[in-house]
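#dry-run=false #mode=assembly
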Amino acid sequence: TTQKKPHVAVLASPGMGHVTPLLELAKRLVVDHGFQVTFLAISTDAPPAQIQLLNSSTLPPDLHVIHLPHVDVSNLLTASTGVSVRIILVVRQTLSYLPSVITNMQPPIQSLIVDPFCGQALEFAAAFSIPTYLFLTTSASFTALTMYFPTLHAQVDGDYSRIAEKVLVPGCNPLLLDDLVPGVLMPEVLPLCNRIPLVKGVFINTWEELEPVTLGAVRKNPFFLGLPAPPVYPIGPLTKGNEDEPLTSTKESQKMLTWLDKQPPDSVVYVSFGSGGTLSGEQMSELAWGLELSQTRFVWVARPPSEVSASGSFFKAGYDAEGAASYLPDGFLDRTRERGLVISSWAPQVAVLSHGSVAGFVTHCGWNSVLESIAQGVGMIAWPLYAEQSMNARMLVDMGVAVWPKPAGERAVVGRGEVERVVRSVMESEQGKAMRQKVIELQGTALKALGLGGSSNASLAGLADEWRA
Ligand code: BUP
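#status=ok
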C-alpha cells in the first residue's frame, strides 16, 4: 500500500534566527514522517548565510524551497527607519504574493506553518480554509507571557509603569519587570497575541524538562484553559546540526576551526552577540580588556560598535569587510595573539560550540544560541541586549547554567574587572564545574526529548499522524 504523503508549507520571515529552526522542522517532517514540505523563503535583504543554507544541495528531495519574489521597499524607507521596521515592511510586501503562490501549489497544502513575524499569512490562509500553525522560535515562558499579555495590558490600561516589580503569569515562575521593559511589554505585540486564537496549534522550540512549570501551566492552569487558545506542542530543541556548518563556510570560519583544533580541551571561551547584536565602543573596549586580563583563550565574533553600525546591522550580519579590529584597544590583537582569535565573518557556531576546546559561551541569549549551547553542553555568560533576551538570561541563571555580569556606572557598562571575574568563574572555578554538570544534565534531557519515544519527538509525531489521517 502506498501511504498518503501530506504536503505542508513552512513560511519563515528573514533572518537566521527564524529560518534555522523552521528549516529543521521542515527536515524532520520530511525525514522522520515522510511528508512533502514546501519551504517559503523571504530572500529580500537576506544575509548570504541564509541563501547558502536554503540553496544547499544536501536538503532531502521532498523538501522544496521556493524563494518568494524580491520586493523593493526603498521608497518606504527614511533615514531613520530601524531594522525591525524594515523587516516588517519587507515581510508585508512579500506576503502580498502569498495567495497566488498558495493557490498554485501542487498537491494543495494540508497545513501552513508560519513564524510570528509572518502573522499576516494567517488571514490569507483562513481565506483558503488552510489550517495554520504558529512556530514561536522562543521559549515557552515567552509564549505564556504572549498569551497572557492582552489580559495584562487591559488590567493596567496600557500603562506598564503601574506594574509592581514582577509580572505574574498564572501558574508560571514570576518574571521581573526589569527584564521585560523595554523590548517585551509593548503594544506592538498585541496583534500577534490576538492572532494566536486563529491558529490550530502553537509549536514551541523547547522541551518538557527545560520548562516544566510553564508548560504545565499552559496546559492545566484555569487561566490558560479559559483562553480561546490552541494547544501547544513543545518540539525542541530544533537547532542546526554540525553537518549544516560547511554550507555557510568561509575562509575565516575555516580558520576558526583550525585554530580551535590547536587549543587544549575545555580552554576556550566563545564570544558572539548574534546576528543583530552590537556593543558600544566603550563596552567593546571593556570586554576586550576583560578577556585579556582573564588570561583565558577566546574566539570573538566581533563587529563594529553600535555607533558605527547602528542601523542595518541585521542585514550585513557579520560581513563587515573592515572587521572590528580597528575598534579594539591599541595593541590588543598583538598582546593576545597567542591565545585569542577575533573574526568578523559568520561563524560556524554549532561546530564551535561542539568543539572539544570550547567550554564557555558569552552570548546575547538569542533563543537559538541558548538552545545550541545547551544542546552542546556549554555553560554560558549571559549578555542580553534586546527583545526577550533578558528573560532568557534570567531563566538560564535560575537554572544554574549561566552567570550574568553586572554593569556598573551611569552608562551601564560592564567593566573589565567584572568581565575578568565572570570568565574566570565559568572557566576555572567550582561554580564553573557545577555549571558544567548542570548543563550536561540538561543536554541529556534534550537528546532524550528528541529521540524515539521522547517528549518532543512524540509531540510532533502525534500531530503528523493527525495530518496524515
Ligand atoms: Br552571528 C552568528 N554564526 O556568526 P539567535 C549566528 N549564527 O551560526 P539572533 C551562526 O544564527 P533572533 C554566526 O548559531 C543561531 O542559530 C546561530 O539566532 C547562528 O539570535 C542563529 O541566537 C542566531 O536566536 O536572532 O540572531 O539575535 O533575533 O531571531 O533571536
